[in-house]
Amino acid sequence: MAGMCGRYVLFSSTETLVSALTTRLGEQVHPVASGGGSGGHIIGPSWNTAPTHRILVVRRFRGKLMLGPAVWGYRAPWSPGRVLFNARGETAFDKASFRGSEPALVVMDGWYEWYVDGAGAKTPYLVVGDGVLTVAGLVRPDGEGNLRSTVVTSRSVEPVAWLHDRMPRLLSGGQDGGEALHWLDGDGPSLRALASSPPGGPDTAALQAREVDRRVGDVSVNGPELLRDVAGGRPGDIMGE
């Protein structure tokens, strides 16, 4: 597992996401009519989302907050086949690789991170919070009919700083939409300020990490069994099991 925030989970239904996001942003969120999913999902639920997969993002489109699909990762112009799935918040707005991007929220139920011990052994953990997470992201069209997205990262903070030195730039909500809405509607200076600052507030304080199935390292394995709490020997509580 190279890089930070290269796997995450999103299994909540569209109905659940729209309700949670509307409350978080203080403004109605509208799902796209169809993204190819089924069973109450714009896209199919995933317990092992990886770069190049389809993900869900919220962005301002024609005055409305729209929840719809995007492809995770910008194509790297200097390296065919490589994608840029993270953007370092401190420098993202200075990099030609992300020029022409617009702000978006990447929506997830949690993300995976690999802890590396002193001997170099890697152990996967799932980081979850108190419900749906909204993460700073960037989007732009790729000229081939796809909207592409990348996840903005920041330096890691407690309570998960021990796990990795970087983390997704979580954006808090609130009655006025909080950081999340300010990210979507902000100007250049405010976006730079948010991207380059670490996350905080109750959303960040609620984060917890637990060891999960090592098979998450295999992108072909994708099912709720990956969320099993290895230490506790039980399925993931975030799914109500």
Describe the protein's architecture and organization.
The protein is of the alpha+beta class and 241 residues long. It has one domain (8-239): SOS response associated peptidase-like (hypothetical protein yedk fold). It contains 4 helices and 15 strands. It has helices spanning 14-25, 178-185, 188-196, 202-205; strands at 8-10, 29-31, 46-49, 54-61, 64-72, 74-75, 83-84, 86-88, 102-108, 110-116, 122-128, 133-141, 147-155, 166-168, 208-211. The strands form 3 sheets. A 5-stranded antiparallel β-sheet has the order 3-1-10-11-15, with no helix packed on it. Strands 4-5-13-12-9 form a 5-stranded mixed β-barrel. Strands 6-7 form a two-stranded antiparallel ribbon. A hairpin with a 7-residue loop joins strand 6 and strand 7. The longest helix is centred in the N-terminal third of the chain and has 12 residues, at 14-25. Its EC number is 3.4.-.-.
Write the layout of secondary structure elements.
Blueprint: E1 8-10, H1 14-25, E2 29-31, E3 46-49, E4 54-61, E5 64-72, E6 74-75, E7 83-84, E8 86-88, E9 102-108, E10 110-116, E11 122-128, E12 133-141, E13 147-155, E14 166-168, H2 178-185, H3 188-196, H4 202-205, E15 208-211
Parallel strand pairs: 2-5, 5-13, 8-13
Antiparallel strand pairs: 1-3, 1-10, 4-5, 4-9, 6-7, 9-12, 10-11, 11-15, 12-13, 13-14
Q: Could you give me the name of the CATH homologous superfamily? A: SOS response associated peptidase-like
Topology as H/E string? EHEEEEEEEEEEEEEHHHE
In which range does the helix fraction lie? 10-25%
Q: For this entry, what is the oligomeric state of its chains? A: single chain
Please tell me the overall pLDDT: 91
Euclidean distance between termini CA atoms:
28 Å
Choose one word for the global shape.
Answer: globular
Tally the helices: what do you get? 4
Please state roughly what percent of the residues sit in beta strands, choosing from under 5%, 5-15%, 15-25%, 25-35%, 35-45% or over 45%. 25-35%
Largest sheet: 5 strands, antiparallel
